[in-house]
Please model this.
Amino acid sequence: MDKLRAIQYFNRAAESGSFAAAARFFDVSTPAITQLVGALERSLGVTLFHRTTQGISLTADGERYYEISHKVAADLGDIEQRLGPRGAKPRGTLTVGMSSALGHYWVMPRIMRFLARYPDIELVFKPIVTIREIDEKSLDLAVLVGWPPERDLVVRTLAQTRLVVCAPPQYWAREGMPQEPEALRDHHCLILRSSGGTLLDRWTFEKNGERRTIDVKTRFFSDDRTWLAEAACAGAGVVRMTDYIMIHYLSSGRLVPALTDWKVLEAPMIFAAYPPSQRRSKLVRVFVDFLVEAFAELEGERTPLSGSAMPRVPKPDWFGRTHGRHSAYVARRRKSA
Model:
């Protein structure tokens, strides 16, 4: 039995959920896939797939085997790339986890550029929320908004976001546009929950060295930035959101910014992260290069909307420590002090 080919067939069938799809990918017959995967199962002494008339799915043993086998195949592919002829285009499968909003607004509209540039790379995208999923979902690379955690990962900063406070014109016409941060206390605000579980209802502003922090009122929370933006467009309230999403809403006039003479603090960064084992992967390198290129275009699109560039923002005090409302966390600390 060709063990390496059997592993490749198994991995492809596991990822596509079909022996027929794996056969199309390798341009072989479906029986060729099933026979070699069957031989692999017999050599291991376990069943890797549940087989039914509706399709295939991994068994518990199959799940464990896939966790190892797809990494083995990736490592072998990387060795082939490094030992292959100079100038050869990278090929193989790259699994990328990404914030859904990042994918929607910035990466997918530009992805054809990457696909045309690297025709031998197959991309598998998975929506993720936290960096922990880099292990849970067996990712080669993660792309997220926030602050990188303190763990053993290679991190590449792609962009420093800026926060914008905005609402639709009909909302401002009905409720009045705030001229000072304190006026936000009289508005309904739509609140993002961070990947660590913090409800970000405490907004801090700065102008001419003066800081003002407002605990806004809300009864609307979401983990999803796009849902918050769309709810704001529907007139549900005021949203504080990173400009990489707001650009499209602001330029179309669906949302109108307020308090533009104030800097909104605690803006997160956009970053790519991957395990040290992927440091020499050509697939990871060329995709990160593509991301750097894509987010460089962000600067040209957002500068007229958000003003001058901001330096990288340090992690806020609530990051990684606060669960529930940020305002309640601060109140508890003051009470115990």
User: Anything to note?
Assistant: The radius of gyration is 24 Å. The domain at 1-88 is CATH 1.10.10.10 (Arc Repressor Mutant, subunit A). The chain has three domains: 1-88, 89-161+268-306, 163-265+311-336.
